[in-house]
Amino acid sequence: MHLMIQYSDDGATDVPTSEAPLPPGLYIVATPIGNLGDLSPRAASVLSRAGSIAVEDSRVTAKLLQRIGVKRSMTPYHDHNADKVRPGLIAKMASQAVALVSDAGTPLISDPGYKLVRDARAAGIAVTTIPGPCAAIAALTLAGLPTDRFLFLGFLPAKEKARAESIAEVAAVRATLILYESGPRLGATLRALVTGLGDRDAAVVREISKTYEEAVTTSLSELAERYANAGPKGEIVIVVGPPGEAPVTTQADADALLREALKNLPTAKAAGAVAKATGLDRRELYARAMALKDDL
Ligand code: SAM
Known about the structure:
- By secondary structure, the chain is α/β, with parallel strands linked by helices.
- It folds into three domains: 25-133, Tetrapyrrole methylase, N-terminal domain (Cobalt-precorrin-4 Transmethylase, domain 1); 136-240, Tetrapyrrole methylase, C-terminal domain (Methyltransferase, Cobalt-precorrin-4 Transmethylase, Domain 2), CATH 3.30.950.10; 251-295.
- Helix content is 41%, strand content 18%.
- The protein contains eleven helices and ten strands.
- Helix 6 links the parallel strand 6 and strand 7 (176-182).
- It is elongated, with a radius of gyration of 23 Å.
- Mean pLDDT is 90; it is low at 1-17.
- S-adenosylmethionine binds at residues 33-34, 102, 104-106, 109-111, 134-136, 180-182, 206-210, 235-237.
């Protein structure tokens, strides 16, 4: 297929001129995470040729479509209506190209869509992906931390106890961790990460592909201090480097970590979390935690 794309002065993609209809199926379309110039020509082409578009928020996608001069019928598909809307969308895909977009970035990545893909595949529908921006991967490329093994955690739970448990679960994983977070919760999350993981190299990456894009790479404890009182504006990804070779932890360090963990966790779990973060003996830490608990 020959597809002509026109570019406007600022480099953003204008309307693809191909009118060829798309075969029926589901098209997962990644959209920009800030800079509209990051919409790929192929993504613009699919959006302009799809029969309809399943969207997270029609107001957000309407702006993108307006930017590329496309008018299309949109079906809201989000966490609150997904179960109700999904069967109708699957039925539509049998005779029509249905594109799936989220508000920003790659659908399904901390965004709705996985069940739509699951059910489409089960129904024998052709599923195609149009890859593109994803904040997790973009942050990993900016952080300057190891990229050979990484684990994406999405958003951690908002509640302290559940958050501490989620962090304890991954403390021993020898991989770089990638998390999404919002400005107001950044300080608390960084503190919880120091408690649960011990100090590590880490980065706060924000506003990727926008005017104030920034990546600050230092230690987790320095980041926790830097953002203790005021989270920065904008959209944020936290990247945490893998654990180092068994760090030397003093008794005072262990006590401080135990005291912090005991604020959110029962004694055994606090000892377990600190054991994972430091490599120290869990039973000894439990005994110490029992002693410290009385002083709290
Ligand atoms: N599906 C999207 C993706 O592919 O990255 C992620 C959607 S998730 C609901 C939104 C979160 O992604 C934000 O709260 C933020 O943590 C992160 N994010 C999105 N855009 C970003 C950007 N431009 N810079 C930094 N983080 C971003």
